[in-house]
Design brief:
The chain has 2 helices and no strands. The chain is mainly α and about 80 residues long. It is elongated and about 55 Å long.
Amino acid sequence: MRDPQQPKRPDLRRLAELSSIALLLPSSIAVGLFMGYLLDKWLGTGPWLLLTLTILGIVSGLLSFYRAIKKELKDEPKS
């Protein structure tokens, strides 16, 4: 049995989920940037694929960030 006087421990699973949200946006941008750079270098298209894939990475990251925040707010325990 738990002692009612004992302080609550943080829910580590929830903490891990919340900390992973912080990595969504930078990782999406980095993937778009890296892929655009490699494709531009390989195809010789200048900065166009770099810019296009970076913008797509930003949009993808923001969309993923929005979905994750929306899910976390829905799953938030009522206090």
